[in-house]
C-alpha cells in the first residue's frame, strides 16, 4: 500500500523547519545526504534510534514532504525529496545539510559504535 | 537589565529550526529582514500577534540565538543576529528569509488590515 505524501505545493516551510528541528531527524537527513541518489532501507538507520522511534521520525519527515517512503516487499525504502524541496525552497536543503553532516551523532549512535 | 543571549558557538541548528518552525515567528523574521540593519521596537509587530504572545515568541527567538533583544528605556529593541547566524550556518538565513517574506501573513494580521 502506498503511504500518503504531500504534493510539492503542499510542502510548507514552517512544517519542514519544525520537523527538522530535532537532532535525530537531522542525523537521518545527514545520512540520506551522504548517500544521495540511493533509496535506503530502514535498517540503514538502526544506529540512530530504536525501531519504533525511527518509524515515528520517518512518518513525521514523510508528512512534511522531506522524504519519500516506499514499500518494497516487507521493507520500506527511504529517499530524500531533493528535487521537490529545492524547487520549493531554493538553497534551504543544502544549507541545512552542510551543518547536519557535521553535527555530533545522537547518543544512541555513540553507544552502538563504542 | 540585559537579557541572556547565547554566544555564537552556543547557537544550535536543531534549536534554530525548531523555533523557526512556526508561522508567526517566520512572519517576525520576514519583517526584520525587510527592514534589516534597523532595530525595531516591539510595537512594530503588533499586527502579528497579541502583546503577550509576541513576548513569548521574542523570548523563544532570543534563546535560540536568532534575534537580539535590548532594553531601551521602557521599550525593547529587536534586531536580527544576521552576522552570527551567517557565520554559524552559511546560507541558511537567506534561504529561509526568501520564503518567509512570501508567506501569507498570519490570521491576526489579516484581521487587523481588513
Would you kindly provide a written description of the structure presented here, covering whatever features stand out?
The structure is a homodimer of 114-residue chains. Chain A is α+β, with helices and mostly antiparallel strands. Chain A is built from 6 helices and 3 strands. Chain A has helices at 13-20, 23-34, 51-63, 82-88, 92-100, 107-113; strands at residues 40-41, 67-72, 75-80. The first copy, chain A, has a 3-stranded antiparallel beta sheet. The N and C termini of chain A lie far apart (38 Å). In chain A, 32% of the residues are buried. The A-B interface holds A 13-23, 26, 88-92, 94-96, 98-100, 103 and B 13-23, 26, 88-92, 94-96, 98-100, 103.
Keywords:
homodimer; 114 residues; alpha+beta; three-stranded antiparallel sheet; 3 strands; globular
The biggest beta sheet of chain A reads: 3 strands, antiparallel
Q: Estimate the global geometry of chain A from the Cα principal axes.
A: globular
Give the total of beta strands of chain A.
3
Proportion of residues in β-strands of chain A: 5-15%
Mean pLDDT of chain A: 90
Count of discrete alpha- or pi-helical segments spanning 4 or more residues of chain A:
6
Oligomerization: homodimer
The residue ranges of chain A in which pLDDT falls below 50 over 5 or more consecutive positions are: none
- Helical proportion of chain A, percent range: 40-55%
Structural class of chain A: alpha+beta
Query: What's the arrangement of strands in the largest beta sheet of chain A?
Result: 1-3-2
